[in-house]
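May I ask for a protein sequence together with how it folds?
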Amino acid sequence: MKLDAELERSIKGLRLKINTFFVFAIVFAVAALGVYAGFLFFPTEVDDFFSGDGTDIVNGITVLFASLSGVLFVYIAFLGQQWQLIYQQQEIRDNRTEMKASTAELKIQAKALTEQINKMDRDFVHQNFFRILEQHFKTRDRVEFSGRTGEEAFIFFFKRLVRWVNDKGGWDRDIDDQFLMKNGYEWYPKRPELGLIGDIDNTKLKPTQDPKHDLNKFEVGFILRAILSEYGLGKYLRSCYFLLEYIKENDQEHDLSNYLNAVEAGMDQNERVFLLYQLINQFDVDGYKELKDWLIEKRFLASVQPKHLLDPRHMEWIYPTERNPEYKK
């Protein structure tokens, strides 16, 4: 196997160490055997040479040489493992190179859109995002409100809203004491000075004669929540939460926030307005405050034109004019 220059230098260094220590290990092993054999064949001479303590001294020398030889052989075995690791590292590099080459061939053969999708498919997070996005759009297309589906469902949601705020059976109705227990939130009574604030013809909320009496953020949030409680759309919102939370959780490592524009591009005007109002109010209620703050930081839905809202001034609640000079006119 041909090694990279860096790994080849490492192998040469290991080879020199192994050869050197192997020689020393053999020398110490031979020395130990030689001393011991000399004592076996010439015990008297050795004993006389060491003044009667030959046995102990020879044993000590033999053990010393044998121990040194053993330590060196153990170290050589350790170096052998390093040798194997270097070749395994080269195999990993070769496999990675082969995978890159294979991927490059697929890119050449694919069309432009297919190239982009295949590039993202190599990463599980990106691939999974598109699956979730596809499922979300399917859920959106099945949204039903007052017998309408898809974009018409959101159109009729706002038509129902402007009627509901004027209707005796809507915001003007009498509420019993069990409302909180049945619905999980308190009824927000309509102020008398608001009057018939629903502009049915234009699907807007009329301003009052005195701006101080106009609907506030909490009242609009209550109206949206009350209509959602009566008519549903909960499955759509849960799908939105799941999709947007997935983008947020994987953004730091995979830059998924770049796909927020793709999510928004798949929405029609009324759906974008609907989701913007949910971002203003419902995200907090449903426990997605951190997600809301992150989306505002990324300026999600900031391109919605104020004229499309129930009241253009409502854009100030989430994207104030000083932060959005493009909306001053």
In short: The chain has two domains: 5-109, 121-327. The beta strands are 144-145, 148-149, 198-199, 204-205.
